[in-house]
Amino acid sequence: MSAAAVHSLWTTAATAADPISKINAPKIEYAQLSPTLIVVGAAIVGVLVEAFVPRKSRYYAQVFVSLVALVAAFAAVVALASDGYGTTKAHIAAMGAIAVDGPALFLQGTILLAGLVGLFTFAERRLDPEAHGNRVDSFAAQAASVPGSDSEKAAVKAGFTTTEVFPLLLFAIAGMLVFPSANDLLTLFVALEVFSLPLYLMCALARRKRLMSQEAAVKYFLLGAFASAFTLFGIAMLYGYAGSVSYARIAQVVDGTVTNVDPALAGTMGNDALLLIGGAMILMGLLFKVGAVPFHMWTPDVYQGAPTPVTGFMAAATKVAAFGALLRLLYVVLPGMRWDWRPVMWAVAIVTMLGGAIVAITQTDIKRLLAYSSIAHAGFILAGVIATSKDGVSSVLFYLAAYSFVTIGAFAVVTLVRDAGGEATHLSKWAGLGRRSPLVAAVFAVFLLAFAGIPLTSGFAGKFAVFKAAAEGGAAPLVVIGVISSAIAAFFYIRVIVLMFFSEPRPEGPTVAVPSPLTMTAIGLGVVVTLVLGVAPQYFLDLASQASVFVR
Amino acid sequence: MNPVNYLYLSALLFTIGATGVLIRRNAIVVFMCIELMLNACNLAFVTFSRMHGNLDGQIIAFFTMVVAAAEVVVGLAIIVSLFRTRHSASVDDASLMKL
């Protein structure tokens, strides 16, 4: 198009009517966005609490605000779902930026519940011994002070705690709520950053082993920012391809069914090279967040170094949000090029399942072991994503819900087993735990069996649903590989159980801390959900099945 | 001038940034390379905006700048705290956790 015509886009003749009067106010459906808005609002209130509430009462104020916000947001999600926004009234809100539909509401509900359980583990203050008469949580007394320095000792003595983690948690949850419901690529990118940045910070805040924690944060930050730069370049390519960042518009251009083409646009859009490069780069960014091989390098280090409550929350909620966004991208934006992305996703799923399961065998640290197990699980979920069917969506939704509770519960148990240096994460220290504290070991065994996918646990129901969908979707070889890697994975889960119950406790082994009702609730909820979803999954499978239609 | 040339420039800048992330050892320099990648994306957005004749790309560039600024705040906070602990910002020294 000519230069004069382009310039007229952002310049106007002086005699023209006042352009301000022509701007139409956007139409925002506040009620339908209320889950996200509540959480963002509470996060801002949390920041104000940091500024104005006296230090002594900040912890209580923050926990109260976060708790109320998460419960209210979950109630809002349930209200929207029961109004039919998940099924019949599904539509696109906020001028095309946010989709309010079944998968979005289901995943938002899951993220909020995971956030709520995560909040309980964040707020736990009875595991560490009291420092100078003050109860302390898992987070550094003062993040800015160098570990071991005088200023840190002074901060510990004064009883400081990093209550900023609660607003950070809420900001992260807010970004995660938007991520799977984003309906244009710009919203997707902004949501990605909104939930990533607080997570990078929270990783650096461990009270014990700060050096490792800071190292984990640097690794997570640099690699995460690297991956999001790739995502952004992919978005630029897709914008170049379609002339728009709206999901529906890109899907139309991919399918070749676009109706109203601007004559200026017709000459520049539709370049397949841009589509392929852009799609691949966005997928790369999402697979990084999911922790799929070959973009998994950060997972073990970050999971090991981050404070364990943060690890649990991150492992559960990030996966839910990222798989939600991945599903929407593949099923709504790029279904027209599934013959291009399916082979790639096949390869990624296979190496993820096998890689995660095989490398986990050699691990000696319980947090690293769980990290590799989460990589293997990402592979299983990818098998459901590849199914490209309604069953594929519903099985992935169910798997994510089941998996997130197991994960948070398992990491909450890890926080209980302690020795003089904080958490005793080395596997050799877990030897004979079943003799010393049978209850904790039994609970952990339930979680491990659920990870392994043993019948009567939620892991079995989830894996069965995912593999069934994959087999029906024409990915039978993938199911075979999935079952083989489940068997490999079962080996190291069972090995931990054997270690806990059938070996002699070491004389100077770790002790099991008695937690407050907060962590007990988190672990208890994990066990209950694991068993209920394992014994009677049908209701929840139906729920996921009802919620499995995307709006476009 | 043909706007496609700016796309080639953007791809080149992005590649330089990505290469820098992979080969540089100082966390701050790695981080600057990531910023270079984000700015390469901005150039691509603005160029496509000019080619398509719509304003979406220019608006996205503003969002990218804000996000990049937020990322700088968080990134420098993390890198500075690591530097104060270790007296080194080398990404090779940070190797407490290995397989």
Automatic annotation (TrEMBL), chain B:
- Record GO terms (molecular function): NADH dehydrogenase (quinone) (non-electrogenic) activity; quinone binding
Question: Which enzyme type, at the first EC level?
Answer: translocase
Q: What membrane topology term does the record carry?
A: Multi-pass membrane protein
Keyword NAD applies: yes
Tell me the domain of life: Bacteria
Q: Which reaction does it catalyse?
A: a quinone + NADH + 5 H(+)(in) = a quinol + NAD(+) + 4 H(+)(out)
For this record, the Gene Ontology CC terms, alphabetical, are: NADH dehydrogenase complex; plasma membrane
Instruction: Report the locations given in the UniProt record.
Output: Cell membrane; Membrane
Give UniProt keywords alphabetically: Cell membrane, Membrane, NAD, Quinone, Translocase, Transmembrane, Transmembrane helix, Transport
Q: Name one Pfam family in it.
A: Oxidored_q2
Location, primary (coarse class)? membrane
Asked if the keyword Iron-sulfur belongs to this entry, the reply reads: no
Spell out the Gene3D superfamilies in the cross-references: 1.10.287.3510
The record's EC number reads 7.1.1.-
Q: Transmembrane ranges?
A: 6-23, 28-48, 60-83
The entry assigns this protein to a family as follows: Belongs to the complex I subunit 4L family.
| Subunit relationships | NDH-1 is composed of 14 different subunits. Subunits NuoA, H, J, K, L, M, N constitute the membrane sector of the complex.
PANTHER family recorded for this chain?
Answer: NADH DEHYDROGENASE SUBUNIT 4L-RELATED (PTHR11434:SF21), NADH-UBIQUINONE OXIDOREDUCTASE SUBUNIT ND4L (PTHR11434)
Summarize the protein's role: NDH-1 shuttles electrons from NADH, via FMN and iron-sulfur (Fe-S) centers, to quinones in the respiratory chain. The immediate electron acceptor for the enzyme in this species is believed to be a menaquinone. Couples the redox reaction to proton translocation (for every two electrons transferred, four hydrogen ions are translocated across the cytoplasmic membrane), and thus conserves the redox energy in a proton gradient.
Instruction: Tell me what this protein is called.
Output: NADH-quinone oxidoreductase subunit K
Species of provenance: Streptomyces monashensis
